[in-house]
């Protein structure tokens, strides 16, 4: 049998490893800054692009798509070549994948702090980036599939199955969730509204975790853990069960993020049922990973690579036990909107994704540079710093979550809320926020230790740009199953069929959940009093989105006695009919805002945005002074209304034509309301006089951003009337 010589492409792997470490430290540093903002809310006072609401999506995107994304590419490009005994199909596509991905990350790092966001969690980037992501992802997939076609290894190893499922599913999720109507170069509106948008978003959001943070890393686990332990995978049959059950069940679980909301009950219950079932394939994978180390546990004591991988797999097991538990309605009623969810997410991110990445990098770099790791001692130091960092981070957040939930739901004997002021539930958990910041600091210091160790390792080695390898050419075989050949063994040598079956497995759950939700009239009852936003309210809503207010404030009152008592009538599906996108939120650092309209005066809102502590003593909300000072851009209002009209919002052409006048009238009314405060009137007139005397341009209050935001906030929850409650169902 003829043996062919060829070269593995190590250059692309090294590029992605460098990017992984670079973006990882940046993403974690932004996260650490955000953690300190809970303690020092005005640490970036007056700098709009460094405010919490704008940096929070930058942190999540940097960690998920820059750090973890580059890590999964590095691992996939390295392992795929060796599992398929072939160089990547196209060096050009490899480089397009790398440089295209880095350009998208740089674009995100620029636009998100500037407030260009769709506000959809883990999908905040605006429409040009969505198109770019799709194109780069296709380049990656084409390269993967092209390499499979020219492979020299007949059967596809389990890691390749997970890579294929990742490519197909992420493509489907990304495209369907990011269908939007562009308004300008960096502004768009979601194609879906309200309940529909929430379901599609969390179908995407949950499965972005599943198929970007989990399935590719399971593939990496199946490759790198056996390599590091020098042991075969514990069970081939278990890996088959793990793969097919995981990709089929995972796609159904998204609605568990929306329990007790205005989402239809059938969708919620489907999410709960499949989330509970998800425990079994998840733990099957964990068991398969840990038992692969049988006979190699003595190495774990001394080998930092195995240490990182063991904790990573354990973290995966903990997170995937907690996920199904949190999907149970009685548990979710306590945990949702609280810091418990923050703890849950970071156990998965820091332990599973972070530690598996660290272990992989420690294993790869010495091999890519033909040397040994510069310091085993430093790697072990990094391990313990990271492990303690995770513990010190997560445990206080669990405590904070329990404290929040219990305080939110506490009643006095007379039926009133024990902690009626939401701030009382915030000030109690400040010590836990201190602990989180300390834990995060320790974790990121460990990452710097790793960076130093890797740099020293690279300097003492010599790079192998193109690694020589040899393997026999793939011989033609019958497409039919041979005698005694198991069905799955046959499927493993049929990549097209494997991909088709994986696609069908992930599409079934998506179609069952998404298609019925698009039938608006049947599943979202119409509430006659709910009207479209006025032009000024629409502009105010866009400012609310731009500033990332949804990161800290929900707009969803659940049907609990405590929430109805605290916020008002619980939310109905029909109230969100014209919300493109939905803004239900996933965390309450501040109170829910769905019934905030008309609860406070316009002056209160202005003072609250300018200096939150002046209206709410002890508040950890940062100041938004620029909203009070900056002029509202009204140049695209008509374009926004036409986009809404395209989406089905019943704006008439006449209303669009008189949008500027309409905004001026509503803005003038709010300006007059603000004048009712003598302090405001005196200060405002003094500023106006000073500007006139010095020949400076002066923006009337009615034309400032704060007035638009006030218009939006005063509208929230005011459409629904008592008579409508009798006519509309809650689901």
UniProtKB/TrEMBL annotation:
Pathway: Energy metabolism; oxidative phosphorylation. It is found in: Cell membrane. It catalyses: 4 Fe(II)-[cytochrome c] + O2 + 8 H(+)(in) = 4 Fe(III)-[cytochrome c] + 2 H2O + 4 H(+)(out). The keyword Phosphoprotein does not apply. Residues 16-498 form the Cytochrome oxidase subunit I profile domain. Keywords: Cell membrane, Copper, Electron transport, Heme, Iron, Membrane, Metal-binding, Respiratory chain, Translocase, Transmembrane, Transmembrane helix, Transport. NCBIfam families: ccoN, ccoO, PRK14485.1, PRK14487.1. PANTHER family: CYTOCHROME C OXIDASE SUBUNIT 1, CYTOCHROME C OXIDASE SUBUNIT 1 HOMOLOG, BACTEROID. This is cytochrome-c oxidase. It comes from Christiangramia lutea.
